[in-house]
Amino acid sequence: xxxxxxxxxxxxxxxxxxxxxxxxxxxxxxxxxxxxxxxxxxxxxxxxxxxxxxxxxxxxxxxxxxxxxxxxxxxxxxxxxxxxxxxxxxxxxxxxxxxxxxxxxxxxxxxxxxxxxxxxxxxxxxxxxxxxxxxxxxxxxxxxxxxxxxxxxxxxxxxxxxxxxxxxxxxxxxxxxxxxxxxx
Length: 184
What we know:
The protein is α+β, with helices and mostly antiparallel strands. The chain has helices spanning 2-14, 18-39, 51-66, 168-171, and strands at 69-86, 89-104, 115-128, 131-146.
């Protein structure tokens, strides 16, 4: 009886929890998003996001590149607030803090203002090719912490998508927003 209970406990401990497994997939996506924006190369996103999501980010990176800008970003914190899965579908909600700015490609041009944003995000995931991949991203809330004061053009973060106002760090930017990009 004891051995059976011990074996069950060991088996449960070996199984990844949805929170850990799905949260890890989201963190990997965000890390690749930072790299994609910083290098203007979204090719590695296809390993952590489905084609539609990765293509959405590619368009946003192309917009930055056409504007002769590179988005420099850093995720300062990511907390998974909920994670659920049913079969091959998963949903993760997070609280995230991002720091980012636009860096111009022209030598000597001044960088854009550094933005610090606190965001609540929802990620839809699907198991594809034996792993969890991000299918879409929605910005639930987006608070600009820095710089303080009024910002030209009004608010940031325009609803769903790491792209419709959602920059790397999922979801904000002072310019036409690029970011993980689901726009539904």
